[in-house]
Amino acid sequence: QVQLVESGGGLVQAGGSLRLSCAASGSDYTFSRYALGWFRQTHGKGRDFVAAISWSGSTTSYADSAQDRFTISSDNAKNTVYLQMNSLKPEDTAVYHCAAAYALYYSDYDIDKFFKIPQYDYWGEGTQVTVSS
To answer: What is the CA 129 to chain-centroid distance, rounded?
Structure first.
């Protein structure tokens, strides 16, 4: 089993910034085997892909809505992945979920394939981000 715990959400004004963190742990968790991603979900809607990062941290992938404003990064020593969100907009308001996808047989350059929910094996409970106008 793998556990993912998100933190760092909160209330921020439009144009502000937040940094989300996701700590991974568990008996089955070896950082080098998993690609990590962030998804977000608004009330009554499905989860949308935001960003993903390869296990090495060398490659990343972003949704169009996150490109140029959000940055995903990882610290393998801490088993933690981050999502730095800048220039936040009210439409960024959502619950943000961290997810881990078993990616042992994928290359770092396959990270752009990890944007679909079924690819991910483990999910965190999420952290609320609210952006006021």
So the answer is: 13
Among the ranges given (18-22, 30-34, 69-73, 88-92), the one the predictor scored with the smallest mean pLDDT: 30-34
Nearest to 63 by CA among 83, 53, 74, 49: 49
| Chain centroid offset of residue 106 CA | 19
Flag whether pLDDT at 113 surpasses 70.
yes
The 10s digit of each residue's pLDDT in 48-87 is 999 999 988 899 999 999 999 999 999 988 999 999 999 9
d(CA 28, CA 48): 26
| CA distances in angstroms from 92 to 18, 29, 37, 65, 113, listed in the order given | 11, 30, 16, 9, 23
